[in-house]
Amino acid sequence: MAKLGSINRNNRRKALVKKFAGKRARLAAIAVDENLPMDERFAARIKLAALPRNSAPIRVRNRCEVTGRPRGFYRKLKMSRIALRELASAGMIPGMLKSSW
Fold first, then answer.
1. Which residues, at least 6 apart from 53, have a Cβ–Cβ distance to it below 8 Å?
2. 6 shares its domain with 31
3. Entry pTM
4. Which residues, 6 or more positions from 48, have their beta carbon under 8 angstroms from its beta carbon?
């Protein structure tokens, strides 16, 4: 199990990303639009930089929903390889069997 502080910090980041997603997208669109004047684009970049750092989607870490483990993460299942193996061996994941030959 990962530290609760790390998990909670990541959850706060997810909430900030969700909160500022629209504003961030609008400012980014203005900043890269070649048809607008340079000073307007620059002002959009300044406003974008003034947003909280943790509202950037790149700062969110993929973590296992079961254990909070940050490494060995399967995006499709939203869990780590270790949690996946334990749940599959216990028969908790439909259609998944332990391989044997």
1. 59
2. yes
3. 0.83
4. 24, 27, 28, 31
Terminal-residue alpha carbon distance, the chain: 32
DSSP-assigned beta bridge partners for residue 73: 80
Please state, in angstroms and rounded to a whole number, the distance separating the CA atoms of residues 24 and 21: 5
- Residues 15, 33 within the same domain: yes
For 13-37, give the DSSP string. Answer: HHHHHHHHHHHHHHHHHHHH-TTS-
CA distance 61 to 54: 11
Residue 23 shares a structural domain with residue 41: yes
Each residue of 32-70: pLDDT tens digit?
999 999 999 999 999 999 999 999 999 999 999 999 999
How many domains are contained in the chain? 2
Q: What is the DSSP letter of 62?
A: P
Query: For residue 74, what are the domain limits?
Result: 62-93
